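Figure S7 source data.
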Amino acid sequence: MSRTVAYLRCNSGHYFDGSVCPFDGWTATGCAEFPLAVARLDQRGLAPSRALLAAEGLPDAVLSRILVMEFPDDCAVFEAMNPAGYIVGGRWTPLVNAPPGLR
Ligand SMILES: [Zn+2]
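Tokens for the predicted zinc ion complex:
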């Protein structure tokens, strides 16, 4: 059974499923509401989506940092990731040089 997980992106480009980045301790105003909103959706049997999290009242500053991923099963789910970089415009872009929307 697939599982959908919502992550927040910190300003270093890490993704995590709570309110504080486990890699560097980053958090921001409104981030504490993120896991609470996800939990409320889960209690209603709803997978997280950006639209549903917006309907839960998360501020735009938090919504702009959300990435939702659907995994094939629980075995593939992780709590956080620290990518080395991205392919942007067909070119390898190390995370430290990634555009603001990716970090
Ligand atoms: Zn971080």
